[in-house]
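Review box. Two proteins, two foldings.
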Amino acid sequence: MNFIAHVHVALSAGGPGDAELAFGAAMPDLASMAGLRVDISTLPPAVRQGVSLHHRTDATFHSLVEFTTGVRRLGEQLQARGLAVGPSRAVGHAGWELLLDGCLLDRPGIEHGFARVIGQAPDVAGAVSPADPARWRRLVASMQSDRWWLGYRDAEVVARRLQRRLQSRRRLCFAPDEIPLVADALAEAKPGVDLAADRVVLTVIARLAREGRFG
């Protein structure tokens, strides 16, 4: 899952401090995006609990047949369009997750819930390593002011973000002139992601609750 879906799953746990828990559930993805590491031991307790929930959520989500099948099909579609194997697999995995975020943003209350969590985000810049609090604060501020994450509804925006995210990964990167190819494959895959989105999220929430993993 990507950070919007992680926040939605975490908010389903409810209870006091739910915004800090949900922010912690998004933190690993946000830190990776910013090229930063997090010293978990220095985080507030609710945020630290959210980071732990992030990893439990991913373990559950990555085992779902809807996800594994969707990733495989998207990767195959990309290869059929001429994208190399490495980038096809990377885009298949990350692209399915970003499309899921975009689909969830069209569900009632999810955009508002995510905006609330980001708007109430505690200042945890001191926990990032290497020490670069300004970079972390700029990322959080841009999510509050620019709301660029709303662009995940659009397949071309997702393709461009993936191209930037993967450009430093020699085996996984793809060229800027391949963005239209990737965007077309993502647009073709999006209806299937949208169809599976509710079932996937509800299954993850139910499994985490049944296993007592929200605590």
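Next protein.
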Amino acid sequence: MTRKIHIVLGHVAILAWLPAAAQQLVVDRSPAPSRITPADAPRLGGPEVKGFVADHFLLGAKGEVWIIDAIRIWAAPDSTSTNSRRLEDLYERLVLFGGIESEPPAPNQPPDCDCHNLTAVKTAVPPFDSAQSQAGQIDFRNLNWWVPGGEEIQFGIMGSGREIEGGQGRHNWYDQASASGRHRLRVFDAKGKYSGPYTRNGVPLDPRLGIAVQVWAHQRPPVSVSGAVR
């Protein structure tokens, strides 16, 4: 199927045929129990993270442009959340951050540019956009997020927890983990500024452990141009 559009530039009428692209599941790292070691709990984050944990994924090849339509992630609520599995009852806001992954600065050196930082792509407030929020699944839809093919795209979710009954603080945000591929998990603050690598008790995680995610996207169709001078 194609879509036809007319573009008039000066005295040149251009007829462009744009193939209609359909979104497809291009990244599928659904949550699964860790197959690395029993000590690796299948969730990432927690109260020690002052912001959020970020992972990455890759779409297509260099020279291509991809448009991300939707991203699905899974939360792993902390032990204080056992009385409710509805994420609306636990978190008052979720923010999807993203950007092109860049090499981190040298150890003990501050970032030399904003290229290491991530920006907010979309904010979600209750009721969250998923019929499965009771099972920890959240969908960020209608993103229209344009990214280059062949580049590692970083993403992360910052969850703002609600107050815990009894004055025990706020619910902590944890990402459900998936044991697949290779990952370089990093920590960013609440504004998306790079903080450093993500570790557990000061020890880097096994690189096979990353954030569970599914990504639906479509490639920007090429434009074939024909026209005549009027």
